[in-house]
Amino acid sequence: MKKCKGCGIPLQNKDKQGLGYVVDMEQDYCRRCFRLSHYGDTADLKTNYVTNKKIIDIYDRYPNALFVLIIDVLDALCLKDDDLLDTFKRKDLVLIINKTDILPENFNDRKIDRIFSKILFDLNRKYSNIKAAILTNKFERQFNEQFLNLLDVLNATNVIFAGRANAGKSSLINKLIQSSDLTTSIYPGTTLEEVEISYKNYRFIDTPGLVDVNNYATYLNIEKYKLSKIDKMIKPQIFQLSEAQSYFYYGLLRVDIIPKNKASISFYINNENQIHRTKYENGDDYYQKHYCEFVLRVKPLGITEYSISDQKIIVIKGLGIIKINGECLAYVHSLANCRLYECEVDL
Ligand SMILES: Nc1nc2c(ncn2[C@@H]2O[C@H](COP(=O)(O)OP(=O)(O)O)[C@@H](O)[C@H]2O)c(=O)[nH]1
Ligand SMILES: [Mg+2]
């Protein structure tokens, strides 16, 4: 059976509306990949084709492969409380913490090393199957050499690239094989099936991304997703306050802060979006008045209360991070489906 070189779906020339459609079976790429790569056309993008069960079945078909788990850098900040690594408990695992280029300017190499050494140290105590970890991003030049050396040290030739949707798996394999064979896009759910690639004496296997029920991206439609996803270096939006204030990120997130004295709050989100601030007394009014205008409003928000004595860093997967400093009460209104994660490492 011939499969699409970009996303792995079996090709067919019978059903024009169906996945894997090609006019001519000689073609290597399905219509969906062709449109996505050439025109950024998302019409055929959202499918319910990929499920976590299917992806785990793919993993199970490669019992002897080395598992390379690609993780978005912001997700990596709360990996200890995530169940992602449990999926790979019985596999030899290499972690790749990807997209470090989105971290703010003051995150120099030393700072990044400090943060992730601590996180990885804690992870290693729980998961003895982690053989190595690499921090990288798509701009890093030494990655290929480093990674291929590591494969040789680990004596690995069959290598499966796994992880959550949109972590950068396909992009990373393209970079390794120095091609653009695999279809990549800013949207989750691009890769539909496993794609095997022979390179030198290795066999690389790309896979679809696991769906994360705690990630905002899972619940946003394409337009909302495009507005809020972070793909460039974050410039935090920082606010000082000495009286109670409410902060709004459209209808996606609201944070009320009631300070004992002075406090500050920083939002690490997509730079294109401005946080709106009102007095706390006007917060509800503002929310009611603009309720219908909130272009990004998706589902009811749930409220989590924090009593903060010094600092709290909260990771909201798929949306960003908030960092609150000072003695205060904070009420975070966020998408009820998505769990909030506290990051224990200072940023
Ligand atoms: N900023 C940034 N974006 C990246 C990086 N790696 C991948 N991306 C982007 O993340 C998106 C998802 O990439 P893709 O390879 O399709 O992810 P996959 O679903 O894991 O295969 C694309 O828009 C990539 O350009 C990176 O290191 N930094
Ligand atoms: Mg992919």
Task: Tell me the name of the CATH class of the largest domain.
Answer: Alpha Beta
Q: Which oligomeric state applies?
A: single chain
> Which small molecules are bound?
guanosine-5'-diphosphate, magnesium ion
Beta-strand residue fraction: 25-35%
CATH architecture of the largest domain: 3-Layer(aba) Sandwich
Report on the biggest sheet. Answer: 6 strands, mixed
Order of helical and strand elements: HHEHEHEHEHEEHEEEEEHEEEEE
Instruction: Please report the distance between the alpha carbons of the first and last residues.
Output: 49 Å
Approximate helicity band: 10-25%
Number of helices: 8
Number of strands: 16
Rounded Rg: 21 Å
Name the overall outline.
globular
What labels describe this entry?
single chain, 347 residues, alpha+beta, Rossmann fold, 2 domains, six-stranded mixed sheet, five-stranded antiparallel sheet, 16 strands, 22% helix, globular, binds guanosine-5'-diphosphate, binds magnesium ion
Give an overview in words.
This protein is α+β, with helices and mostly antiparallel strands and 347 residues long. The chain folds into 2 domains: 45-212, Rossmann fold; 237-342, no CATH class. The chain contains 8 helices and 16 strands. Helix 4 (109-126) links the parallel strand 2 (93-98) and strand 3. The mean pLDDT is 93. It binds guanosine-5'-diphosphate and magnesium ion. Residues 98-99, 101-102, 137-138, 165-171, 184-186, 190-191, 209, 231 line the site of guanosine-5'-diphosphate (GDP).
Give a quick rundown of the structure:
This protein has 347 residues and is of the alpha+beta class.
